[in-house]
Amino acid sequence: MRKLTLLAALLAGALVAACASGENVMLDEPPLSDTCENLNGRFRATNLRFTSLTDPGVYRDVDAMGGTYAVSFTNGMYRAEYGEPGLTPVTYSGPYGVEGERIVFTDTGPVRGIELGQAGVECRVIGDTVVMYDDQARYDFDGDGILEPAILQVDLDRY
Q: Which one, of 96, 74, 98, lies nearest residue 18 by Cα?
């Protein structure tokens, strides 16, 4: 079974558990810091792209194809939902931590055709956008069940 150590991500991530407390994100929340250590709130992917490492001309813009990724962060916990185009979304949740510039999602779950690097994903905050990047992701580009080396980039905006 394929696993997403994230998110989906990213991809997929993201590409997400204790934050399902029903709290609403206030529109007047303070701006995000430039690290991913103290993330708080709900975010939706505005870009979720896998690019083949063996052939950079091959890529999948999952969001452009109708896929979705959303993640919530509250008090060191996450709850993420990843949906591939035409398939029922899958939910992941658990604690997350930050090691240097990598965000590590502890809980894992099955994701069709995606696997992220073992150590989490690079994570940076730029303005109100959280950018996650993994150059050790794997993605099934052609639907044959074989995961191929890939780069994942997920841009998440607060909503």
A: 74
